[in-house]
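General statements about sequence and structure are easier to judge against a single worked case. Part of our work consisted of pairing the sequence of a single chain with a tokenised description of its backbone. The amino acid sequence and the backbone structure tokens for this protein are reproduced below.

***
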Amino acid sequence: MVDVFPQRRLVRGRLNNPFNPWFLSALRGVDVVHCIGWHILPTDLAILFARLTGKRVFVSDVGGGADVSLTRVAPMGRLVDGFLFLSQYGGSLFPQFASRARVVYGGVDVERFTPGIAARERKILFVGRIIPVKGIEHLINAVPSDVPLTILGRPYDLAYFSSLQRLAHGRNVTFVTDADDERLLSEYRTCLVTVLPS
């Protein structure tokens, strides 16, 4: 079951730091809290809630972060039972948590995400959050203007997204910011190559 709590507001207008305190009510009935993201206010609040209610809490960092977070002024990492990183590189960015860290890698549903029978098209695909650490501007600059490029993901930094749109002007670049799972699967199956410039 997935509960979705619409954002009440964005902390300092940042899409990667949404705020809705009611999400904490959903944590009352759980045994373990797993936060996706570090240096964001919702993770900070979930960690504090878990500690106050005697629940174990784990964090996976997926990059990004925000400028408003308790981790910037308090040792929040001490309150976390463990850090679950998606890669060795991700874990290397947090050496201070090495004694409580494990690399779990990202899972893929190999029954669903298969090559399919559709013909491959001469197009390049990027899939991921639209944030500066992904290096999307380098990909736009590198792709010849006559080669189609699809950038599929949600923008979490509107200024960065606007700069990418300006950079892509006059090029064969399509931004897809609201793809469902079927569109994502179709894009993977029909692209010639997927590029992760980060």
